[in-house]
Every structure is written in structure tokens, then in C-alpha cells.
Amino acid sequence: MSNNVRKAVIPAAGLGTRFLPVTKSMPKEMLPIIDKPVIHYVVEEAADSGIDDILLITGRGKRAIEDYFDDAPELRMHLERHGKSRELDALNEISRFSGIHFVRQREPKGLGDAVLYAEKHCEGEPFAVLLGDDIMKDHIPCTKQLIDVFNKTGSSVIAIQEVPTEQLNRYGIVSGKECGKNLLLLDDIVEKPRPNDAPSNFSSIGRYIFTPAIFSCLKRTTKGAGGEVQLTDAIRLLIKKEDVYAYVYQGKRFDTGDKLGYIETIIEYALDDEAMKAPLQAFLKRA
To answer: Using 50, 70 and 90 to split pLDDT, how confident is the model at 134?
Structure first.
């Protein structure tokens, strides 16, 4: 058993109802950000944080995710035969994500239930959780920053950012005491509170490092908001059991599970592409 964070869990079993009808036959995690699906960026963050053992929690209709990370020898041979080196390099980039495993959530019972499926795989070790529709953009991956905090504290830590008051009812909102630069020791977290009831303006943003104690808390968690087993409710139980920290993430976070957030993500990454930047800026000025 190791105390190092060597494993990552990526829940990707949600139904994606905000993007219907396209998500009727296509996982929301496979929606493209130009030429890479959302899930590619999430897995890439885990890999760039030094994690090479990744468990994806999927569900019905999510087979495309498995296919994406599978090998494609026929396609590789076709590209080699036709001298398409740029496309071949893009394809080979996927192959570096070799330590990926899959398990299927049998019923869509909520995020907390999905994470519980990882208990056996984590083998009593601390682990990272990265939500499959949140993309983080920074020089140092968000998950790596959380791992650094965990290595110092030995305790669970979640990433948070300040959100506008009108969005407080969309997220898990935390309260706690400052205990270092960009660091809080949590005393509570509330799932989707009304703005007047919110304990702060700081929201969890889909990146976590957990000790194995989270699993016993998940087993004690009953259905909460939306009639689902909420990870936030399990974190509330964990706070009563052991120290849990929150790290104020300074990078950019994109919620691709939201239509506007998805469009913003595409624009952000398109503006990073030198070939697309000037034409896109010209288009946006005309729009």
C-alpha cells in the first residue's frame, strides 16, 4: 500500500441531458474541443500530473470513450501508407495514455455512487478524482497542484474557485478557515444551496484528492439533491471524520457540461492555435 497519489478516477457516466439530442447517441465527454474530445484533456491532465493508473467510470452509451483510447492499427497503417505524419503524430499521442481501465456504473445514481465503484481499484490508497466534463488550463496541472498540497498535509484536498452569487445554486459551496496561502481547512460543504443560504462564494470545481476514508463516507451517504448520491454529502461526512482542505485554484476552469461553457472552451483553445487565431478574432469582431 502506498501513501503516494498514483491513481486517478474519472467519472464519465452522466447522461448529458443539457446537450440533448446529440448526447442521445454520443457521450458528452466525447464532444470535440476542435480536434480532441473533452475527455482527452481530462486524461491528459492526470497523466501530466504523474499519474499513469486511470480508472474511467462509464455507463450505457459510453462505448465511444473506450474506443477512443483503444489502439487503431488499421488507421495507423493507413496514415503511414499515405505519409500523413501530422495526423499520425496526433493519433500516437493517445497511445501514451496506456494505463487506462474501465468500469461501468450500472445505474445513473449520482456522482457519489460513481466514485464508490473505484474502491476496489484504489486498493486502500489515496487517489485523485477528475470530473469528466471540466477542463482546467494552467502551466501546472490542477491535479498536480492538489497532489503537492496532499503531500504536505497528508489529508484530502479539493479544488475551489470563487463563483458569482447567481451561480451558487449550481455547485458545492464550501466554508472554512484560512490556514495558508490559497488554502482553507474546511468545516462544511453544501450542495447547490440557495444564494442566501450559501456559506461562502467558493465552489468546488471538479478536482479532488481523497484518502480511502471517503469510501466509508460514500457508503453512509443517502440520496440528496436531485435524488442522487452526492459526492458533496460524502465530503461533509469526511470533514467530521478527518481534516479536509480546499485549495484556491488560480488557473482557468471550463465547464464543458454547460452550453455556454462549452463554446467558451472551444474559442479559448482556438485562440491558442496560431493558424486559427487571426481569422477567429476577425470573425468575433464582425459578430
So the answer is: very high
Cα–Cα distance for residue pair 41/267, rounded to 1 Å: 15
3-state secondary structure of 172: strand
| CA dist., res. 211 & res. 116, Å (int) | 13
Query: What is the predicted pLDDT for the residue at 61?
Result: 84
For 211-235, how does the pLDDT look when each residue is reduced to its tens digit (9 = 90+)?
A: 999 999 999 998 777 778 889 999 9
**pTM to 2 decimal places:** 0.92
3 state SS of 116: helix
How many residues are given for the chain? 287
CATH architecture for residues 7-286: Alpha-Beta Complex (3.90)
Question: Residue 163: how many CB atoms within 10 A of its CB?
Answer: 18
Cα–Cα distance between 252 and 245 in angstroms, integer?
A: 20
Q: How confident is the model at residue 55 (pLDDT cuts 50, 70, 90)?
A: very high
The closest alpha carbon to 175, from 218, 241, 114, 232, belongs to 232
All three cell numbers of 120: 476496489
Q: Which residues contact 213 (CB under 8 A, 6 or more apart)?
A: 156, 238, 241, 242
| Contact yes or no for 91/76 (Cβ under 8 A) | yes
Q: Which amino acid is at 147?
A: I
Residue range 165-206, pLDDT digits in tens: 888 888 888 999 988 889 999 999 988 888 888 888 899 999
- φ/ψ of 74, rounded to 5, equals -65, -45
